[in-house]
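User: For my dataset I need records formatted as: sequence, then structure tokens, nothing else. Please produce one.
Assistant:
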Amino acid sequence: MFSIHFARHLMVTGLAALLWGAVAATAHAAEPSLTLEAAVQQGLARAPQLEARAADIAATREEAARAGQLPDPTLTFGLANYPVTSPGAFSLRSDEMTARTVGVMQAIPSRTARRAERALASARVDAAQADRVATAQSVRERIADAWIDVWAIEQQRALLAALHDEAALAVRIAQARLRGGEGSAVDVLAARAEIATLDNRLEAVEADRAAAQAGLQRWVGTPPRTLGTAQDFGQLPMEADRLASTIDQQAPLQAWAAREQVAQAALEQARAARQPDWSVSASYGKRAPGLSDMVMLEVGVSLPLFTRNRQDRGISARQAQWDAVQADHEDARRAQREAVTRAVATWSGWGRQIARYQQTLLPLARDRAQTALAGYRGGGSLQPWLDARRAEIELRLSYADALAARARLWASLAYLLPSEVTP
């Protein structure tokens, strides 16, 4: 009776396991893959850096809205013609000119100064927007690098896993030769050690893939188990000549152009300080009973008489800062042109190396290993196959590294132009 119940339990458990496996397999098959472009879009939608830059833009726009406005008026209280010596000292009624006053004063900066303040605020808005463009370009590239890290490790895994069947075949051949009295136990151990070494390499690749998945998860949330088809990293989304001719439109340079505008606006604001400012004040004086009250109106104007050591110094300082920004902008332009030229040249070089791997090196390495294994099966030594095998593994890993290096350079070039400029 116990054995019957136990058998039924095993049957139910087995059916449940099969059902669960089928459901898991179906869910895995239905899970959408993640392409590079989809990863970039998802990462941009949830990047905290872009939220921070959007907040910076909102802050500068608020500042721009109040730039150039008149300052708040000033409410004044006081005493006029108050006696402090005899006769009638410290009395509000002893002198008919004594009055208690209340008034308002309004400072009116020059129109030039207010216009310069608005221009400076507008330039700061443009600078904040340029910073956001540069940040978006950096985020795109970092997301692409994270996706490429996972993709490159998957290439390594596929390249190494393709050699597993041959390693198992070598073990079987060595065991068959040993049983037939032609081989040696040493060959069997060496073949088994080779397959164990390959398994270790695959385990290391799996660990690297888990680490790379963590890097991608930072940007897109929980990434899917599979990646979508990769871009054609051998073809740039725009011509190399166009990259070289659009240096100033590229995201890293837009921030410098905006900084130059801010420096220019600050210089104009310093020049506007040479213009006189105005002020208007009105006050009402309440005198002793029986005496008429009085109203006073005043107009003031600033006198920039000592501009040599005040306004001119400010103008000279802002001029020097503008010159410095222009020089730094030119240096950044040259550095960007050099970086783009280097990246294009290196990307092209990796493309030629990858073509040589695909057309010559990898087929030769495969033929060498297969020929060595066939020779061992025909009675030769195992060592040539071991040597060819290890050389092929290193060659395949170097090929995967070349694929990753070219893909990362592709990403660094593909996202240089902002999305609204890219054709």
